[in-house]
Amino acid sequence: MNLQEKINTLEQTVDRFRLFLDAAPDATVIADNLGKIVLINIQAEQLFGYPRSELIGKPLEVLVPERLRKNHVGHRTKYVDAPIVRPMGKGRYLFGLRKNGTEFPIEISLSPIKTDDGLLISSSIRDISERLRIDELIQQSEEKYHAIFNQARDGIVLIELESGKIIDCNPEFEAITGRTHKALLKLKIWELRSAEQREEARKMFYKIKENGSGGSGELDFIHKDGRIVPVDFVSSVVTIGNKQILQSIVRDITERKHAQTALQKAYDEMEKRVEERTSDLADMNKRLQVEIEDRVSAQEELDRFFTVSLDMLCMANFDGYFVKLNPIWEETLGWTLDELMSKPYVSFIHEDDLEATIKEAEKLEKGINVIHFENRYLCKDNSYRWILWSASQDVERKMIYSVARDVTELKKEEENLIKLNIELEQAKEKAEESDRLKSAFLASMSHELRTPLNSIIGFIGIIMQGLSGPLSPEQDKQLGMAQNSARHLLELINDVLDISKIEAGEVELIHEEFDFFETVKKVVQNLKPLAEKKHLELTTHFKGDIKNICSDKRRIQQIMINMINNAIKFTDKGSVIVECGTTNGFLETRITDTGIGIKSEDLPKIFNEFQQIETGLDRKHEGTGLGLSICFKLSEMLGAKIDVESEWGKGSIFTFALPLQ
Predict the structure, then answer these.
(1) How confident is the model over 233-286, as pLDDT tens digits?
(2) At CB < 8 A and 24+ separation, what contacts does 242-246 make?
């Protein structure tokens, strides 16, 4: 191939690069080391509202709001002095300026491009206005949910349906049980019951799990101080993320129970007194006045109890009429007590609840108590209120004694919680879909970028071999720098391709039998020159007689190369030791180095994407920050795990554990 053909090929590569640039979804602006714009793509024209011809040759600051331009010049100059691939303004909001003068939030990724004519800086720019708007909506939704959750007057508890473990509760539930939030999160829901009831409660919970639906009723909790707390609950099964959760709303009904007991006791006492007064006919005339006085006194006590109770108390006969009601009925429904007692009580009930109400009344007439029942009652303003009932009966006297409570607001709170759960799930699904599409696009574009990069690396290699004529030492040095930069960029693209394929679900594992120890030996042998170049001792130790295992050989090689290469890269003196052996059903590989180590605060995030131990413009070690993230995700796919122990300034131990079965 003659020189002209090579020039033509390079021009075609450049043209193809421009086509890829215009095909990219993000705006791209390329400037020289003085901050002058030399190239933009179509997306940049659309994003900033400038035609390409108006921006070429202009300083980058025309795209920066006036208030930020002075600082931007200083940041740009510092970047030129130490150019690396990195995001711009990490941890801060960045803003762009359109031709029409409007500002908008953006995120920017910077990449240096070294050319024969000098350094170019490529900026990938994305408008994040919509993302910030969605983030704000999600935050508002979560705040609304937590406000309702924490301020509810009833106890709310969330229980993991799979295990029965309490995963969250509000302050009112803590007050009902007498336990702290931290203490409750260590318990399973049936552990709040008495020792005698605990096993039966556990069986009932798993029956709910099998049915996949909630329920309602009454039960007793054991307070931390040992006393019994009767509660009434309404439960429903909801899905949060990928977990099924039993959401229960709980109300302390201790006072209601006391009221119900007192009501029955007062009536029984009155009956007892009547029987005592009529037992002796001979003394009836003498005791008649006393008996009347006792009856009046008992009735006054009952009336006082009816008057002060915050619950809706009533007596009704089997004919379907209210006989006695307390004042709270007027406050709740708006009807006078006379209006409520003048008609059959079913005439106030919502037509959709009528059939169920009649069935409950028939149970009472047969001597069966009603523990928990809800229906809607008509108010005078034609609205309806939800009423929760508990009732007992006296079949001989054909009377019903009931305690009720307005639970309309409780119903609304439950509906709001369900609605908020749905909104949060929809927002989560939308974010996951956006992330999947991003990963699929990166995987596709990485394939397209590797082809021209390989061509560039190849052409540089041909020129450096002197096939097109001799090179001066300076030319050879500059071409070597360009070749190293291109290879580094290719390494970045390969890492991006791997992580994108994993996130897009496009990685398929190929299981085959292979000699694990022999595979590790070959990896170490290939990396030995890197260790020798740094005067490091790279050694291996193998324990046990494991021969063949069945797994994905290529992916395990990739994990081993990344982890051992990392140990060599971050170790300037001393040694790197690779040990393999079996422990508790796992095939473990421990890589121990005497390198720089990792700070304790950095350990939880070292497997995050684009996370590096060294940050800033003065870091000594190159890298994309994707290697350990790829290792971690591949190990999860293989059913393996990676652990790390490290002490800053002394070294690190990375352990790769692969299950033998």
Answers:
(1) 888 888 877 888 888 889 988 888 888 888 888 888 888 887 887 676 667 767
(2) 243/160, 243/161, 243/162, 244/161, 244/162, 244/212, 245/158, 245/159, 245/160, 245/161, 245/167, 246/158, 246/159, 246/160, 246/161, 246/205, 246/208, 246/214
